[in-house]
Amino acid sequence: MARKIQAIRGMNDILPGQSSIWQYLENTVADVVKSYGYQQIRFPIVENTDLFKRGVGETTDIVEKEMYTFEDRNGESLTLRPEGTASCVRAADQAGLLFNQVQRLWYTGPMFRYERPQKGRYRQFHQIGVEAFGMASADVDAELIILSARLWKKLGLLEHVELQLNTIGLASEREAYKAALVEYLTEFKDQLDEDSQRRLESNPLRILDSKDKATQAVLNDAPSLEDFMGEETSAHFNRLQAILTANDVPFVINHRLVRGLDYYGKTVFEWVTEHLGSQATVCAGGRYDGLVEQLGGKATPGIGFAMGIERLVLLLETLELIPEAAKASTDVFIVSLGEEAEITSTVLAETLRSQLAGVTVLRHCGGGNFKNQMKKANNSGARLTLILGQEEVEQGICQVKDMQTGDQESCKIADIANCVNTKLQLN
Ligand code: ATP
Ligand code: MG
Question: How many CA atoms lie less than 13 Å away from 155 in the CB half-sphere?
C-alpha cells in the first residue's frame, strides 16, 4: 500500500462535525457586521513580501520569524499572508476606495504564521477582520468595539471575555517614550529575558507585554507610557471611554498593552479570556492612521481588529455555548422499497426541499432491504422517517414515522409538505 501523505504540521482540517460550528460563528459575525453597514472584501492569500515587511514592520515577530516566504518561478519574493490588514489596505487603495472616502470593510480567511503549534496556536489559522477607513475620530474606535461587544453578546460570550484598552499615542509620543524606556531598561539589561534584551534595540515597546516575571518586575518602576501622551491623544482616549461607558461596554485600562504590529497608534485593544490558557486573546486591534501612507497611499486614517476563529470555536466548545440549532442535523429521512417507490421518493424529497425552507431531507440511496434502510434512518438522528413501498405508491400515500415516539401514520403524498411541517412543529 502506498504511504499516506499527512497534513502539514499546524495546519488543520476542519472536519464535518466542526464545520457547522464554524458556520454558526461566521454567520453570526456576518449578521452583526452587516447591521453596522460593513461590506465584505476578499483579497488573495499571497502578496508581495514587501507588503508585510513595510506594513507589519521589519522588527516584529511576524516578519522576523513567522512568515511563510518563498520565491515564485520568476524569482519574485512572495509571502502567504500572516494577517489581513496590510492586504486589505493594499486592495482597497489599489481600487481607489480609500482617499477622501469612508469605507467600512470586513474579511475572513486563512492566515499563515510559522509558530510553534499548540492549543489555540496554529500555522494556518483563520481570522475575521473588520476595518474602518477615512474616519479619525474616537466614535469610530467606539463603534468597532461596541460592534465586537454585540457579537460576544449574541454568542453568549460577553461575560467570559474582558476588554483591555490602552492608547499608545502619536508616533512622536511613542518615540519620546521609547527613548525614556530604553534609557531606564538599559540599566537593568541583565535582569531582562532574552527576547526583551534583543528588543531593547529592535522594538522596545514590545518589552512591555513580556510574559517574563523578572522583566515585569523591572518594568514596575519604568517610566509610564501614559505620562508621555499629549493633549490630542488623551482627548481621543477619554472620548472613546465616555462612549463605551454610555453604551455599557465595560473595559479595563492596561497601560502595558502594546500590539505586536508596528502600524498601530492611539487606541489599541484586546478581548481576552481566562478559559484558553496562555492563548488568551480572542480578538485584537487598534488604530493605524499612518499605515495607508506607509504603504504608498495618500494619508487616510484607519482602525480595525481581527479575531481568531479557532480560539473562538474552542471557547464556544469549552463553555458549551453552541446552540442545538447550529449543529448539523437531519429532520426527515426517506426510505423507499422497489423501483417505482424509489423514483416517487426522489420527487417527494424535492417537493419537501422546495416547500419547507431550512428543513434537511436525507434520502437513502442505493435501495436495500427495509430493515437495513430503517437502521440508517435511526442512525441519521432524523425526527421523521417517510416510508414508501409499492403499495403506498399505488394508493398515493406514504407512511410517516415519528422516530421519538415510534408512532406511524399514513399521509397523502399530495399533502406531504403540510403533513411533515405539522409534525416537525409538534415535536
Ligand atoms: P498572540 O499574542 O496570541 O500571538 P497576536 O498578537 O500575534 O496574538 P494578532 O496578530 O493580533 O495576534 O491576531 C489577532 C488574533 O488572531 C489573535 O488575537 C488570535 O485570536 C488570532 N491568532 C493570532 N495568531 C494565531 C495563531 N498562530 N493561531 C491561531 N490564532 C491566532
Ligand atoms: Mg503572535
Answer: 31
Domain coordinates of the chain in residue numbers?
A: 16-169+229-318, 329-426
d(Cα 335, Cα 341) in Å, to the nearest integer? Answer: 9
State whether the beta carbon of 260 lies less than 6 angstroms from ligand 1.
yes
Cell triple for 277: 490558557
Instruction: Please tell me if the CB atom of residue 281 comes closer than 6 angstroms to any atom of ligand 1.
Output: yes
123 CA: nearest ligand 1 atom? 27
CA angle at 28 for the pair 25 and 33, rounded to the nearest 5°: 120
The pLDDT tens digits of the residues spanning 164-212 come to 999 999 999 999 999 999 999 999 999 999 999 999 998 899 999 898 9
Edge-to-edge strand order for the sheet containing 397-402?
361-363, 332-336, 384-388, 397-402, 408-412
> Measured in angstroms, how far is the CA atom of residue 128 from the centroid of ligand 1?
11
| 329-426 CATH, one of 3.40.50.800, 1.10.150.130, 3.90.79.10, 3.50.50.60 | 3.40.50.800
Cell of 101: 472616502
Q: Which CATH superfamily is domain 16-169+229-318 in?
A: Bira Bifunctional Protein; Domain 2 (3.30.930.10)
110 CB under 6 A from ligand 1?
no
Residue whose C-alpha cell reads 464554524 in the numeric block: 22
- 35-62 pLDDT per residue, tens: 999 999 999 999 999 999 999 998 888 9
Residue with cell 497608534: 265
pTM for the model:
0.93
Amino acid at 396: G
